[in-house]
Please model this.
Amino acid sequence: MKLAVIGLGMAARAHVAALESLHESVELTGLYMRNKTRRDSAAEAMQVKAFPSLQSIADDPETEAVLVLTPPDGRKEIVSLMAAAGKHILMEKPLERTLPAATELVEIAEQGGILLGTVLQHRARQGARQLKSLLDSGQLGDVAMVRVDVPWWRPQDYYDQPGRGTYEQDGGGVLITQAIHVLDLMLHLFGPVKAVQAMLTTTQLHAMEAEDFASAGVLFESGAVGSICATTASFPGSAETIRVDGSLGSATLEGGSLTIHMRDGKVEEFAEKGLSGAGADPMAFPYDWHMEIIQNFVDVVEGRSDSLIAPGRDSLKVQRLIEAMERSSAEAGLRITLDSF
Model:
């Protein structure tokens, strides 16, 4: 499949490595960045064409799809142009800074008859897939409680970069930029959240506009209860965890490693090597998950697979949860029902 890259944001390192490994199934037609100097330099380094504009990508007859790695602000022009030109889109999370803006992008893509996929690569991790299979088969019994913990660390110089941790560029702080992956996986595994009560704040460890700490109690539509704690102020940072307690057993997903404790005494462990980007280097993780997301996107575009790992419309669920948490915190911890969004 012939693919153009738009933007080379922070996540670009993993994507470029993934694309290099997928050279037999993906051919880069070129890249575009707003900054001409950086654009030409990156194109030379990657040995691809530098597109002079977004319109030139839309007009390119060879390009079938685009991989969008820009910050989430200003994506409406990209999606509108590519949808009108029939180019399929794979886009880094989040789709946009707010739920209404993200929903508009999904609707533009649907009206244009193109695929819109989201890079929520935690769904592709082996441990997550094993836990999903375990839950779907009912081996843990009825799920009663879910606990999510994201104890990550970002140094102050991370937030000193222009736009980082701001509502104008990023749409928020730890929830929409870091924890979105784990929260999306939580919803993917356990289904929709019915109600949430939350507190968001900025700790004394960071000078930034948005939150670096968020906690919440949640009620799932299934009747299960849960808790969320996410931060980028936990030095030196450790792997995120999802813990689930069911009537027949419990399971802990730590990073990509899964440990299962059944009530009959059986214990199983499935270890995954590699880091998760929990510490000062946000890109300190393998690119295998990105490879799987991109390959799946290619397979769906070319008709070899029926469904995307993380369709754009499906990714709206996690943004709905994040905005409910923000509203709850803004209203002094008021319980917010998600059907009000």
User: Anything to note?
Assistant: The radius of gyration is 20 Å. The mean pLDDT is 95. Residues 120 and 181 are 6 Å apart (CA to CA). The chain has ten helices and 14 strands.
